[in-house]
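To assess whether ligand presence alters the predicted conformation, the chain was also submitted together with LDVFA3IR. Input:
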Amino acid sequence: MNLRDKYNIPHNSVITIAGTVGVGKSTMTNALARALDFKTSFEKVDSNPYLDKFYADFERWSFHLQIYFLAERFKEQKKIFEYGGGFIQDRSIYEDTGIFAKMHYEKGTMSEVDYETYTNLFDAMVMTPYFPHPDLLIYLEGSLDDILSRIKLRGRPMEQQTPVEYWEEMHHRYENWINNFNSCPVLRLNINDYDIMTDEQTIEPIIERIGYFIEQSKLLKK
Ligand SMILES: Nc1ncnc2c1ncn2[C@@H]1O[C@H](COP(=O)(O)OP(=O)(O)O)[C@@H](O)[C@H]1O
Ligand SMILES: Nc1ncnc2c1ncn2[C@H]1C[C@H](O)[C@@H](COP(=O)(O)O)O1
């Protein structure tokens, strides 16, 4: 029996992976999709026309980048809906507004008018009864030191050149954000509690917890 059936995970589930840059979302997305035989939805990094420019000049490009990510994530959302679920999604749409846009506005690298335009668009597109929320959000958490090592290990040039204070601020904001997040059920995983890179079998206890969480949240909805 495959792990999806073993732990009663509905084949049309939508599971989104959240967490700060470098924490291990893409790695977890791939591992879960393989284990559950689900499709993947990734954010565009290499082909993103604004990302390098944004890191070089936050003030100039933060609005453009947010609009780009919003459009891309919304297209992915539509695709997931059209397929009828069965997806692991790398990063939730909620982090765009709850972390990134908010942080740049509050730090002065996005203007007030741009922030208002962006949040109005986000609310009109996402915060509606027509927008399907994921069945589960898996939040990956780890210490700032571990995350900084992973960013270094991955070696994306524009991230290496970004001051540590940026990642520190983001790490802090993520903790507050997840403590107040209630748009869908949340399963928190500490990155020190699993080791899917050296042993993919360690995914099974995570899948067991996913099955339990989805079951519990269905019962709560009734
Ligand atoms: N479970 C893990 N154990 C050890 N290293 C990991 C693990 N998950 C990810 N990494 C490493 O950390 C770096 C960032 O991982 P990635 O999945 O790209 O993060 P994210 O998608 O959250 O930005 C990569 O170099 C990856 O190989
Ligand atoms: N909404 C966003 N605003 C600014 N930067 C963003 C946003 N979403 C993703 N990013 C950046 C952060 C990373 O440099 C890359 C990819 O994110 P990752 O967490 O590594 O998957 O895009």
